[in-house]
Amino acid sequence: MVSKFPAKATAAFCLITAGCFSSQANFHPFSDSSVCEGILRSSRAICTVAITVADYKYSLYGLPNDCDEYRRLLSEVHLRSAKRLLKLCEINKGFYVKAGQFVSSLRQIPKEYSLTLSSLQDQVVPYDFKVIKEVLVSNLGQDLSELFTWFNEQPIAAASIAQVHHAMLKDHQEVAIKVQYPGIEKKMKLDTRIMYSLAEFVAWFFPEFRFLWLVSEFTEAISLELDFVQEARNFETMSNNFRNNKFVRIPRIFWDLTTNQVLTMQFCHGQKVDDVVFLKGMKINPEKVAKKLLEVFAEMIFIHGFLHGDPHPGNILVSIEGQGGFSLVLLDHGICKKLDEEFRLEYCQLWKALILLDSRKIQHLAERFGVGKYYRYLPIIFSGRTIDSKSGIGKGMLVEEQKKMKQHLKALEMEDISSFMESLPSNFLIILRTDELLRSTVSKLGASKWVRLLTYGKYASLGLSLKSNPCSDLTSLALYTRLIGNIEYILLRLTIGVTTLVLWMEKLKRCLNKFYGKMSAAGKEQEYYSKLNLVMKLFQEVPFTGPNGLRPVTRPKRAQVPTGTKIT
């Protein structure tokens, strides 16, 4: 395939391959017994990326990026490249699968990549139990028969860095044991080093395609997941944060059976949160589950400032135990992020501004986040509305707004997207990924966009009320915070309601004017005003008259016309 490319593309392939092999040789001494496997895995990655770079260069060469032919070919190259990466992840396994899963959950990449790589979510083959048993014995210091009444050798879950087994302790407590694959940390260091090198070479040939921010975020997330002791601490922090929430369950940690490679926790029964068939079978309303899920994560972001950063359906179970007929079980706390207090407050302000479409505030906060140049796109990313939208919150964009948005997006180049993602603070990136995973789950559960936006607005108000709280007593603090937050939320909802009513009245006015135009053209103005008077008299006694009995001289008072009322 490489031989078909022009000389420049072939040179690119050779330079990337040689450079990455050199980097790898310097990173790992050949005395290491795992270097052969490392070279094989890395060679596949190097060749895949080199061919992809050449494909982009060759296929799009000489085409202006604002023409339809360029966009059509770009989509085709995206799809071919995504399929190559999918095959690479499937063959190399391990961190490559994890990297593919990570990328597929981002909205900021072309849809061809996210859709193709999403198939990796369920493609993890567990390790043989003999290997897992060696890790357990070496970490716990005893034979399994001395610690457990029984131990299920078949894993109940398997991921790219660990798998989970079900067992019972000698005191008859059911536990779930998460076991890290042997040698995984060494592979991670090699694989991420190669990923950095590849990202640098891609940026060299395509300056506008800069993905170092993505590799950096992925490396940080993986490093967090490999530390099981820190994950156990995250479990306890989350448990403490939700100790008064009866809808949330966090498994208890068994510290005497927990090490850097083994994590033992309480076993909790439940089904994946997006299993709608199970929920309906248990008479649990899926939309209510979606609302509680959004409230839990909104509380993490806006109130606690401590976020579970990997909320895919496999990490959240619905248990039939709990207040209200169900509870949410939060698993896998490896990727947790402590948000800066300043960032938490500014993010609360951003969401209030997004809901109220306060463009000045949005622009100010975008500048604080380092993306002031792209402030107009924040409402589109988070609420699905343009910054000058005339549609109600949670509603779809008007046709005019869609056309205007497409024009703005067409003007964006890859350089803009790279610059935007590079400028965002790390806290923002993990929230974007978390929000995208939540949106997908909430959509499967049948909840409307309105629920998500209102929930975030409510908790943003609650989060801001924490800023100036003068109370010192914990009980008073909680009561005061809830009171102020709920008052602000009520005011926010009233504002939204009034805005929605005004927009509805403007729409009604346009419809009436359009109808009047048609009646005027047909010479039926008098009939129009007679029918309009009839409607208005249903709500208030204000005559609708005008010169010659046609045009009004008195503007009628505003009337609350029920939805569905028609002039017939």
Description:
Belongs to the protein kinase superfamily. ADCK protein kinase family. The protein is an alpha+beta fold. It contains 21 helices and eleven strands. Helix 1 packs antiparallel against helix 2 (35-59) and helix 3 packs parallel to helix 5 (111-117). The N and C termini lie far apart (69 Å).
Quick overview of this protein structure:
The chain is an alpha+beta fold.
Distance between the termini: 69 Å
Low-confidence stretches: 1-32, 468-474, 541-568
Radius of gyration: 29 Å
Strand content: 5-15%
Kindly name the structural category: alpha+beta
Q: Helicity level, as a percent range?
A: 55-70%
Q: What is the total tally of β strands? A: 11
Assembly type of the chains comes to: single chain
Number of helices: 21
Main sheet makeup: 5 strands, antiparallel
Which overall shape is indicated by the principal axes computed on the Cα atoms?
globular
Let me know the average pLDDT: 79
Write the layout of secondary structure elements.
Elements: H1 7-27, H2 35-59, H3 68-92, H4 95-104, H5 111-117, H6 129-140, H7 144-147, E1 148-151, E2 157-158, E3 162-169, E4 174-180, H8 184-205, H9 212-226, H10 228-241, E5 248-249, E6 262-266, E7 271-272, H11 276-281, H12 286-304, E8 306-308, E9 316-319, E10 327-330, E11 336-338, H13 341-356, H14 359-368, H15 378-383, H16 399-411, H17 414-423, H18 426-444, H19 449-465, H20 474-521, H21 525-537
Parallel strand pairs: 5-10
Antiparallel strand pairs: 1-3, 2-3, 3-4, 4-6, 7-9, 8-11, 9-10
Helix pairs in contact: 1-2, 1-8, 2-3, 2-8, 3-4, 3-5, 4-5, 8-9, 12-18, 12-19, 13-14, 13-19, 19-20
